């Protein structure tokens, strides 16, 4: 995971978790980024299977 560019802003992830009264580990933003990457990959596949070139919110 460390070799891939992050897709999320770590400080924003940390701030959001803090609003819930919790702390987060240093590698949480990497895990969130990986989940986002997987969701986007699936959305791209759906877009291509529907013969479109624009990824839309409903593809998620």
How would you summarize what this structure contains?
The protein is an all-alpha fold. The chain is built from 2 helices and no strands. The chain is elongated and about 45 Å long.
Topology:
Layout: H1 10-19, H2 28-49
List the keywords:
single chain; 60 residues; mainly alpha
Question: How would you sum up this structure, described in words?
Answer:
By secondary structure, the chain is an all-alpha fold. Helices cover 53% and strands 0% of the residues. The chain has helices spanning 10-19, 28-49. The longest helix is centred in the middle third of the chain and has 22 residues, at 28-49. It is elongated and about 45 Å long. The mean pLDDT is 94.
User: Which overall shape is indicated by the principal axes computed on the Cα atoms?
Assistant: elongated
Number of strands: 0
- Average pLDDT over all residues: 94
Order of helices and strands: HH
Please indicate the count of domains. 1
Proportion of residues in β-strands: under 5%
Coarse structural class: mainly alpha
Amount of helix: 40-55%
End-to-end distance: 22 Å
What is the CA-atom radius of gyration, in angstroms? 14 Å
Major sheet: none
- Count of runs of 4 or more consecutive helical residues: 2
Low-confidence stretches: none
């Amino acid at each position: 995971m460390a070799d891939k560019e992050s897709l999320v802003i770590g400080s924003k992830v940390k701030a959001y978790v803090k609003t819930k009264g919790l702390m987060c580990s240093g590698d949480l933003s990497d895990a969130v980024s990986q989940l986002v990457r997987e969701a986007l990959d699936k959305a791209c596949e759906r877009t291509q299977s529907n013969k479109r070139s624009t990824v839309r919110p409903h593809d998620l």
